[in-house]
Design brief:
Order of helices and strands: HEEHHEEHEEEHHHH
Largest sheet: 3 strands, antiparallel
Radius of gyration: 24 Å
Helix content: 40-55%
Strand order of the largest sheet: 5-6-7
Number of helices: 8
Length: 269
Amino acid sequence: MKAFLKSGILGEDRVFRETSAGTPQGSILSPLLSNVALSVLDEHIARGPGGPASTFNDRQKRRRRGLPNYRLIRYADDWCLVVSGTKADAEALKEEAAQVLSTMGLRLSPEKTLVTHIDEGLDFLGWRIQRHRKRGTNKHYVYTYPARKALAAVMAKVKTQCRRTGTDVPFDTLLICLNRMLRGWCAYFRPGVSSAVFQYLSSYVWGRVIWWLRRKHPRMNWKQLRRRYCGGGWWPASEERELFSPARVHTTRYRYRGSVIPSPWPITG
């Protein structure tokens, strides 16, 4: 472990830098240490009276007494404590979590720690989680969809890739890079309310690729460009492959995966 921490970092500029503190971003050691250090929080919440160990009847009794129930969702060092109670309950549990983490030499970041209501929403692991009124009804549901920051990040990657890819290379070179990037991003955000975002991203990618083709063939008019690279239609493709279209990805909205994802805590109640 010490060898990992002291191994240093080779940057994108191919300059080697020594590491004297912290773990390198993207290192396999970072999530491992996060899981080791934050396991104390998992165990504390699991043993709590309103946590996952409580039965259905216990939770009902706590609600009648005005006491909170809660669940912890954690991925490496990103975690979210979901509280069924008041804002004061959430603030109290936040302080309780801070005390538990202090025993491991950890502290909550004031800039990244947020106490919010589900109607106001939150960003977690690239998702926007927020309760909205369903259109045409008076019922409210919790929706999960790609956060604006996540969408902006993938759009920036597409733009950068189109700029970095020289026009002297075959069209396939650009398609391979973009397709790999877009498939991974859409696979991650597929289980959510993502159709509108996928359609928007499709339109943006189409525009960037057409811009690249126009740079590659500045003397071609629009009709010639479509005939050569779109088969007379509208969607870009080469002889070997087609540009991946996020708009064609079918989402799996509201898929429950709680019983599929392995958990160290027994399911009770």
